[in-house]
Description:
Strand content: 15-25%
CATH class of the largest domain: Alpha Beta
Number of domains: 2
Distance between the termini: 30 Å
CATH architecture of the largest domain: 3-Layer(aba) Sandwich
Helix content: 25-40%
Largest sheet: 6 strands, mixed
Number of strands: 10
Mean pLDDT: 79
CATH topology of the largest domain: Rossmann fold
Low-confidence stretches: 272-283
Amino acid sequence: MNFTVAIVGRPNVGKSTLFNRLVGKKLALVDDTPGVTRDRRPGDAKLVDLRFTIIDTAGLEQSGPETLQGRMWLQTEAAIEEADLTLFVVDAKYGLTPADETLGKMLRRRGKPVVLVANKSEAKGSDGGYYDAFTLGLGEPVAISAEHGQGMIDLRDAIVAALGEDRAFPPEIDEPETNVDLRGEEDLEDDDYEPEYDDTKPLRVAIIGRPNAGKSTLINRFLGEDRLLTGPEAGITRDSISVEWDWRGRTIKMFDTAGMRKKARAGKARKALRRRQPAFDPLCRIRRHRLRCDHSV
């Protein structure tokens, strides 16, 4: 990918909806309940003729560093540091809040490129929130609707203007095609044919277990950094997150998953989320990743 972009903002402004729009898949959980996104999630984004890495982050909630919300914000700060550009998303329908102003001041102090995005601009009465966004001192907001896909051309133009065409469109390097099917005609007709094991491709490993068993901590130990959110609270990981780890020259793609629990203990909140979005069910996502992985731990 050419560059990296982080999506930041307070809870429920539509960050994960925009993330899903840019990656072209429903990878991130989306719900009206604040705080669904907790870990930072990378993805391969496509916006018209732009190709880049996009990072979804948790919403800004002002709290102490020892709290869950404080640790979530540390993950968001790590994403901002990693990114070349930040998309600062505000809710044009609801208007600005003190949390928006706090985040705007922090982004101005960092001095990195920022594109201000006024989401939900298709709603009635959103003009006031759009014009209020000018007071954040981050330039002209880009009016979009992440849910309906409106304003994506304007967002593309704003990203190119913020980064510059040389950074947004680096020279292309021709790479040899390696994913070539070398089977002969006899192999193609053989239903029992199994391709040879390719150790050049990432080894996929799913980490599963009950809540608070230390799944995220184990992956952080492998990586040697606090890549995934951890803590004493049960059920911190709500969605499956994939991270890559280079071990002795071999790339391993590990999937951290939500803890498995009995349905009777899931609680009313999770059941409500499952009615609106079945993909929120941790067991469903664990089974899905086990089918895609080579091993489960």
